[in-house]
Design a protein that fits this description.
alpha+beta; globular; 16 strands; Rossmann fold; 20 helices; 463 residues; 5-stranded mixed β-sheet; BirA Bifunctional Protein, domain 2; 8-stranded mixed β-sheet; 2 domains
Length: 463
């Protein structure tokens, strides 16, 4: 017996029911992006490795899926190198392309490559899969979708405010209660300067970003392992553990960072975003009793990617234990890596796969999205099928998702098909119905049967 086929670890198949739910997620996010004036683009699944390498830090580079060159990929490779232990030099000879790690770096490449065609500021969104050679685990996959929105060519903090509004609107539509966390890389830079470890800013941010995953003791151990002196680690503790309202945290940090021009600028930026977001998400503005999702200053939020330079964001679901479901931030010079310095941008990315898991756990999907077919016409034979076809076409013209069972099978089999597909209505037409120019419409939920005309059937199913 042939071995049953399988798929790579960290990837998934999605059947019709799953795809209906995923499309609900994509369509919701897409519609909100469009509401704010963002326009859609797509980039290739694979990029030149020269585009990807060096943009995500050493750890990120290790997670890039590399693609072997086509044809005779060993041509020109020295036999001695092949017998060695897979050096980076050999990898660069065998692989010129790789699968994209995220959508932000390909977007930066797109902006530089198509600069003459773009009107700045350029507001784009992109919904596509990305790949990471990570260790698969719950909530972490090797292939997953990102739903990104970015604005490039504008330094205005109004962009940050609008992105926070987009996050709030998307999760309001999903019915997911969330908290949006905000920080600023300039504040983190100021903190590193304060403790005399400005050259260790990357090590500090990478470590404290893991606080909610590994705990304070493990974070402190990682800081020590990175070569940060114990007195400096002790200076960090009250900052990491800072509590209170957003206003109280900002006031405290103004005092702590009073000698850091960079740190104070970061505080001003966060204060502006918090103030404007509160204005546009007040109950009077949103029309909702509860107002917008809470926006909370979190000084331990660091976002691991090195290209962030200003405000950074992360979204946590309040009713499900899961990692970040949205993230993003400001990057002042991402396009500089492709020869166009000084073009500022800010963006967010919704984690569609984690949102999918949250909606599943909370059972928040609208019932209508899982109902593909609304009406099934039973097939009693060639004559009856011919009678049903015009009514079937009329239903579809009216926007009703309808189908006819293709074979004149036993009634029981056709009804089992309707039940298995969760089709809410079934239409039957035998000799009596055809003589009267009508159909018997059965409500599969209640079992109620009604004799109706084709037009009455349309109205009943639509209602």
């Amino acid at each position: 017996m042939a071995q049953k086929p399988s798929i790579p670890k960290g990837t998934r198949d999605f059947g019709p029911a799953e795809m209906a739910r995923r499309n609900y997620i994509f369509d919701t996010i897409r519609s909100v992006y469009a509401l704010y004036g963002f326009r859609q683009i797509e980039t290739p699944a694979m990029e030149n490795l020269s585009t990807l390498m060096g943009k995500y830090g050493e750890e990120g580079d290790k997670l890039l899926f590399k693609i072997l060159n086509s044809g005779d990929f060993l041509r020109g490779v020295d036999a001695q190198e092949l017998s060695g232990e897979g050096s980076p030099k050999l990898a660069s000879q065998l692989c010129e392309k790789g699968l994209r790690y995220d959508l932000t770096v390909p977007f930066a490449r797109y902006v530089v490559q198509h600069r003459e065609e773009l009107t700045l500021p350029f507001r784009r969104f992109q919904i596509q899969p990305v790949w990471r050679a990570d260790r698969p685990q719950k909530g972490r996959y090797r292939e997953f979708y990102q739903c990104d929105a970015d604005v490039v060519g504008s330094d205005s903090l109004l962009n940050e405010v609008e992105l926070m509004q987009i996050i709030d609107e998307v999760f309001h539509r999903f019915g997911i209660r969330v908290c949006i966390k905000i920080n600023n890389r300039k504040i983190l830079t100021g903190i590193a300067e304060l403790i005399g470890q400005a050259d260790k800013i990357v090590d500090i941010t990478v470590a404290i970003d893991k606080l909610d995953k590994i705990g304070l003791d493990a974070v402190n151990a990682e800081l020590a392992e990175a070569g940060i002196p114990q007195p400096a680690i002790e200076q960090l503790q009250p900052i990491i553990n800072l509590s209170g309202t957003n206003e109280e945290k900002l006031a405290t940090m103004r005092q702590v960072l009073k000698d850091s021009q960079t740190g104070l600028k970061g505080i001003d930026e966060v204060a502006y975003v918090l103030q404007q977001y509160a204005l546009v998400t007040a109950p009077a503005s949103t029309g909702r009793v509860e107002g917008g999702a809470p926006l909370q200053l979190d000084l331990t939020l660091a976002r691991g990617l090195n290209y962030y330079t200003g405000c950074i964001f992360e979204v946590k679901a309040l009713d499900v234990e899961i990692g970040s479901i949205t993230g993003g931030g400001r990057y002042d010079n991402l396009t500089g890596i492709f020869g166009m310095p000084g073009l500022s941008g800010v963006g967010i990315s919704f984690g569609a796969d984690r949102i999918y898991d949250v909606l599943n756990q909370l059972e928040l999907y609208p019932q209508a999205i899982t109902t593909a077919t609304q009406l099934l016409f039973v097939n009693f034979g060639e004559t009856e099928a011919a009678y049903a076809l015009p009514a079937l076409a009329a239903c579809r013209r009216a926007g009703i998702r309808a189908e006819i069972y293709p074979d004149a099978s036993k009634m029981k089999k056709q009804m089992q098909y309707a039940n298995a597909r969760a089709i809410p209505f079934v239409a039957l037409a035998g000799e009596t119905e055809m003589a009267d120019g009508k159909f018997t419409l059965k409500d599969m939920n209640t079992g109620e049967q009604t004799v109706v005309t084709a037009q009455e059937m349309v109205e009943k199913v639509r209602s």
